[in-house]
Design brief:
The chain is built from four helices and ten strands. By secondary structure, the protein is of the alpha/beta class. Strands 3-2-1-8-10-9 form a six-stranded mixed sheet, sandwiched between helices. The protein has a two-stranded antiparallel sheet with strand order 4-5. The two termini are 14 Å apart. The relative contact order is 0.19.
């Protein structure tokens, strides 16, 4: 069984559609888990009603909803403050925090293939993640931050660091 996680906050209306497309295209048995990430400071504006709306939608379609908790050990990640009180510092930290929280409190405890996918991504073709991940324990799309950007063919820029893009990450933590 695969566990698929997404964090939802500003577009709860996408949850049912995303789940419908998963059921249509994912050829493996899976559990879809929504991490309810709505709180002040994220992008898209805060609406406290969305917290219960997310939970209600999940209940209606039969998927698990877990509230993302702000825990002191994760308040500062990589030297950046993630939240202050009950509010994220900004939209970027809301994304970074929720992915880290999901990893540290959920995914790392799994003994199965686990997937993190952005809440606004939808499958458009059939896929077997078990087959795609055969022989691998980590799958991601690389993303980059540059210290110097591309200027021309002679000055192609310099990558400062590479990291997994948070749109789709596949993990086998065991």
């Amino acid at each position: 069984m695969i566990k698929i996680y997404t964090c939802s906050h500003n577009r709860p209306d996408f949850i049912a559609l995303q789940y419908q497309m998963m059921k249509k295209h994912i050829k493996d048995d899976f559990e879809f888990i929504v991490c309810n990430n709505e709180r002040p400071g994220g992008d898209g504006g805060y609406d406290p009603n969305k917290i219960s709306e997310i939970d209600k939608i999940c209940e209606e379609i039969g998927v698990k909803s877990i509230r993302v908790e702000l825990i002191p050990e994760l308040q500062v990640l990589g030297g950046a403050k993630m939240f202050d009180g009950d509010s994220y510092v900004n939209g970027n930290t809301a994304c970074a925090y929720s992915l880290t929280w999901t990893w540290k409190t959920q995914i790392i405890n799994n003994d199965c293939l686990s997937i993190f996918i952005d809440s606004d991504m939808f499958f458009i073709r059939d896929i077997s993640f078990e087959k795609e991940m055969e022989g691998y324990n980590f799958g991601y799309v690389p993303s980059y931050r540059y210290s110097n950007f591309y200027q021309d063919e002679n000055n192609r820029g310099e990558v400062a660091f590479t990291y997994p893009w948070s749109g789709l990450i596949l993990f086998k933590p065991n």
